[in-house]
Write a structure and sequence with these properties.
mainly alpha, MetI-like fold, 12 helices, globular, single chain, 289 residues
Length: 289
């Protein structure tokens, strides 16, 4: 008597989960799709669709107010990402490799930064900048404008905490045997860090730097409080335009910045692949998994 093949039972929950996943993706990406579509609106008002065209992009790149604000946002995002990546990476290494009684207190402070409302940070930073002056005042001794110094410090505050946790999570999941082997072979500390620790933590550092860049690029609250005349970031300009008439060129420039973010994401993925990370590792690193 031959045994009949038993057909696998279909799980009635799977179709529901697939539909739910599609709805979640639509909910997340529909606003982005709408802003990209309206970036090609040839009308005078953003919400008044008058036809397809590239007038918004042409006007956006010819408007000195928009181009100056975008340039300021990119400069601020790069500077704050560098500050946050350096400070956060060093803090993450210390938390992962030199744990002690201080670790719990330091982690509590890091999480406190993450949960503090941004409006509280903005008000505190404004008072702090006015009180101490120096590099954050009109008489700044720095070779850059004090408005940029304000934005760099303010934006990197939250990002440093994020970088710290990402780098710490990466290093805690890695075995210290390679670093210990380097020490047994009399490799100096800096050489062990450069040839062993840094390549191991590089995926987390790059992902954290990209996240810091993105967080700074769309920061509105802190930028509104601490920015100075002549250094107004793009989100503040858009927020001010919402109160009157939002024109299509604002959507066009927003779409261009979205493409810039995708390009930065692709560059990080390429660097991670060339550093020896597999496709699955690149995906897990960039998604924080």
């Amino acid at each position: 008597m031959s045994a009949r093949a038993v057909a696998p039972r279909r799980d009635p929950v799977n179709p529901f989960l697939r539909v739910w996943a599609v709805l979640v993706y639509v909910f997340l990406f529909l606003p982005i799709a709408i802003i990209v579509i309206y970036a090609f609106n040839s009308g005078r008002a953003l919400i008044d669709w008058s036809g397809f065209g590239f007038d918004g992009f042409e006007q956006a790149f010819r408007n000195p107010l928009i181009t100056s604000a975008v340039q300021t946002s990119i400069i601020v995002a790069i500077g704050s990402a560098l500050v946050a990546t350096i400070l956060g990476s060093l803090a993450g290494i210390a938390l992962a490799r030199r744990q002690g009684r201080w670790s719990a207190i330091f982690l509590a402070l890091v999480f406190l930064i993450l949960v503090t409302p941004e409006i509280v940070d903005a008000i505190a930073l404004l008072i702090w900048y006015v009180r101490i002056g120096g590099p954050f005042g009109p008489d700044s001794p720095l070779p850059v404008d004090y408005g940029l110094a304000r934005l760099w410090a303010g934006h990197s505050l939250f990002s440093t905490a994020v970088v710290t946790l990402i780098v710490r999570a990466r290093l805690i999941g890695l075995d210290e045997s390679l670093e210990e082997a380097g020490a047994d072979l009399y490799a100096p500390p800096f050489r062990r860090f450069r040839q062993i620790t840094l390549p191991l933590m590089l995926p987390a550092v790059l992902a954290a730097a990209l996240l810091s860049f993105s967080l700074s690029l769309d920061n509105v609250i802190i930028s509104s409080f601490v920015s100075a005349a002549g250094n107004t970031p793009w989100p503040v300009v858009v927020f001010s335009a919402v109160r009157s008439l939002l024109r299509p060129e604002f959507a066009s420039m927003s779409a261009a910045l979205f493409v810039l973010t995708l390009v930065a994401l692709a560059l990080v993925a390429v660097v991670l692949r060339r550093s020896g990370s597999s496709g699955a590792e690149v995906t897990r690193t960039l998604t924080g998994a």
